[in-house]
Amino acid sequence: MRKPIIAGNWKMFKTRDEALQFVYNVNKKVPSKDLVDSVVCVQSPVLRDLVKRQGDNLRIGAQNMHYLDSGAYTGEVSAPLLDNIGVSYVVLGHSERRAYYNETDEAVNKKIHQAFRYGLTPILCVGESLEVREAGETNEYVKSQVVKALKGLGKSQIIELVLAYEPIWAIGTGKTATSEMANETIKAIRDVVANLYNSETAEAMRIQYGGSVKPANIKELLSMSDIDGALVGGASLDADSFLELVNAAVK
Ligand code: 13P
Questions:
Q1: Checking CA distances to 5, which of 57, 59, 69, 125 falls within 20 to 30 Å?
Q2: Ligand 1 test: best mutation among 130, 162, 212, most atoms within 8 Å of CB?
Q3: Is 66 a catalytic residue?
Q4: What whole-number distance in Å separates Cα of residue 64 and Cα of residue 42?
Q5: What is the pTM of this model?
Q6: Do the Cβ atoms of 130 and 161 come closer than 8 Å?
Q7: CA 146/CA 165 separation, integer angstroms
């Protein structure tokens, strides 16, 4: 049985005061981590404040990091620092970073290896544009992203990481992929992993769907055979909405 995981990706939203208020409102109300993993991925300057207040069941994640330990890379954040301040997760390869900061599959692969070196759980994002979907090339495109991102990883790492399938055309647009569509692509990702490793590894790996997930559609998405959770932007910003999402994942 794969434990569901709901992760909020706050992107570049919330001040420190707003972030603290959110955690104050939810941290005693999130369900037990034995039932669902509940995570919020936040801007770097508030990571430490939120880790200190995360409580027993909420975990805090970063939204990016560099693949080197240290160096002259102005504006970047290192894995040793994230580890040092108690961060649990890190989102890697989000389509916004790929699009606006030229993040390549090769860099994403290096970042995943680096996250594991420091005990951080990567949330690896993949997903196609509308153009790719309409050309009927979704599975091939996503397969290539997955193969390149996972290069050199062992089976135990595959089982530990979290993969998020986020079709770009469904992000922030209000257009959710139908649950069948999302499930079909996620199944195709599992097939890729089964071919690269074996079927036990593919079955054990957790794969989220992301793109306009909200309390109104989460149940249906999670009822699908291969969807193990959600990576949520807009609907994770409000405390009540976040609590509805994590509670919906409790079986
Ligand atoms: P929305 O839920 O706002 O569509 O964002 C999805 C996303 O990009 C999460 O990483």
A1: 69
A2: 212
A3: no
A4: 10
A5: 0.97
A6: no
A7: 10
63-74 pLDDT, tens per residue? 999 999 999 999
Question: What are the C-alpha distances in Å from 235 to residues 2, 163, 191, 207, 232?
Answer: 23, 19, 30, 19, 6
List CB contacts of 193: < 8 A, sequence separation 6 or more.
146, 150, 158, 201, 202, 205
Contact between residue 102 and residue 79 where contact means Cβ atoms under 8 Å apart: no
Cα(185) to ligand 1 centroid in Å equals 17
Q: Which of 94, 96, 103, 128 is catalytic?
A: 94
Note whether 183 and 138 are within 8 A (CB).
no
Q: How does DSSP classify residue 234?
A: G
Ligand 1 site residues, Cβ closer than 6 angstroms: 9, 94, 166, 171-172, 210-213, 231-235
How many alpha carbons fall within 13 Å on the CB side of residue 177?
A: 30
Do 207 and 189 form a contact (C-beta atoms < 8 A)? yes
DSSP SS3 for 129: coil
Residues recorded for the chain: 251
Model confidence over 84-116: pLDDT tens digits? 999 999 999 999 999 999 999 999 999 999 999
Q: What's 133's DSSP letter?
A: H
Euclidean distance between CA atoms 248 and 214, whole angstroms: 10
